[in-house]
Amino acid sequence: MVFVFPALLAAVDTLVSVFSPHGTAGSFAYTQMDALPVIQIASVLGAPAIVFLVGLFASTVPIAVYHGPRIDRPLIAYGIPTALVTLALGFGELRLRPTVDAPLTRVGLVAIDDFINPPASPERAAAVWNAYADGVASLARQGARIVVLPEKIAALSPDQAAARERDLASLAQRTGVWLVVGLQLNRAGRKDNASWLFTPQGELFAEYRKLHMVPYLESDLTPGNETEVRTIDGAPYGLAICRDLLFAGFGRTYGRLDVSALLVPAWDFYRDAWMASAMAELRGVENGYAVIRAGRESYLNVSDRYGHVDGRIRSAPLPGKTLLAEVPLGPATPTLYARTGNVFGWLCVAVSIAWFFRRPGTRVAIQ
Fold first, then answer.
1. Residues 44-53: pLDDT tens digits?
2. Residue 366: predicted pLDDT
3. Is the pLDDT of residue 118 over 70?
4. Is the omega angle on the peptide bond into residue 317 within 30 degrees of 0, that is, cis?
5. Does domain 104-330 match CATH 3.60.110.10?
6. What is the DSSP-derived secondary structure letter of residue 69?
7. Which end of the chain has fewer surrounding CB within 10 Å, N or C?
8. Please, which pLDDT band fits residue 362 given cuts at 50, 70 and 90?
9. How far apart are the first and last CA of the chain?
10. How far apart are CA 354 and CA 341, in angstroms?
11. H-helix segments, the chain
12. How open is the CA angle 118-224-304, to the nearest 5 degrees?
């Protein structure tokens, strides 16, 4: 049966995304990120629909080659899959042609691969922070309204955090930008992987604590328990950190909160740089928001709600890299997928289970 293979693929994808400690990492859906018309179906039915769509094509073609017109009811066996693929691609093409031009927001990202933590010398730490300040100032002169720095730039004691907060507030005020900075805060009784959002007036406007920690590597850190949304120049922005965007449910939460974009400090492992960026981009497609992601040992990456990459550059050690990009921020409205959740994925799970437990001897025609 032509639909068995794609339904099984989508079912496995759904179950892995729910039960794996790594969320959607490794999903086949990410292999299609360069095929923008294909991935738009995720805004309606989620990533499992991408997996189903590609699996349906991969199932239909070999069956057609092997059986040809000799198959039972060829119009149904080949016609329905062809119609579904055509409809999905047609929807994708239409979605990629918005009827209203969205306003452009100029954003900047800075990433330096060096980690400020013992045994780094005070001189080395000062050089990294000075390079970040220079990068922010340079992007501000080029018109950046928002600047995002990476995850865990430094691990700070309470006294160090208080001093760094003053320095970063002064930097935001001097440059006139909204500034997002990722830090590890070693507080009394707990350690937080946090991001700070500063206003152009030098106010600490929000602190977000990462919800999804890396197993083992961040076992000593305390996960956060809430999202953060703040209005910048009239548009709602959400705060997230790196691994949070591996999880489709997390992405849907911000979709339902009607954010226009996510501001994401990140830290990857070089080899997973492309995959980490792709996962963030697909969360934006699924839920209808742009993703502005500054990754250390990764990419500085800006993508819009349709998965267009508006800017990408590889990070580097001192003096680091900067990226200036203009990202369109459409109206903050959740997609159908953000509103309804992973209904299609669970339907594929149910159908797959029913197929496995069908009555013995039941004949399944190849269609």
1. 999 999 999 9
2. 40
3. no
4. no
5. yes
6. G
7. N
8. low
9. 5
10. 22
11. 4-19, 36-39, 42-45, 47-67, 74-95, 122-141, 158-175, 248-256, 273-287, 336-340, 343-356
12. 95
CB neighbour list of residue 188: distance below 8 Å, 6 or more residues apart: 158
Q: Which of 330, 365, 342, 354 is nearest to 105 (CA)?
A: 330
Q: Where in the chain is the domain with CATH 3.60.110.10?
A: 104-330
Long-range contacts of residues 26-32, Cβ cutoff 8 Å, at least 24 apart: 26/275, 27/51, 28/54, 29/282, 30/275, 30/278, 30/279, 30/282
Tokens read off for 257: 């909160």
Distance (Å, whole) CA 147 – CA 188: 30
pLDDT (tens digit, 9 = 90+) per residue, 298-339?
999 999 999 999 999 999 999 999 999 999 987 778 899 999
Q: Residues 154, 109, 268, 320: is their CA dihedral positive or negative?
A: negative
Q: Distance between CA 49 and CA 342 in Å, rounded?
A: 10
Position 325 scores a pLDDT of: 97
Structure tokens at 311: 């800017």
pLDDT of residue 367: 44
Distance CA 247, CA 43 (A): 15
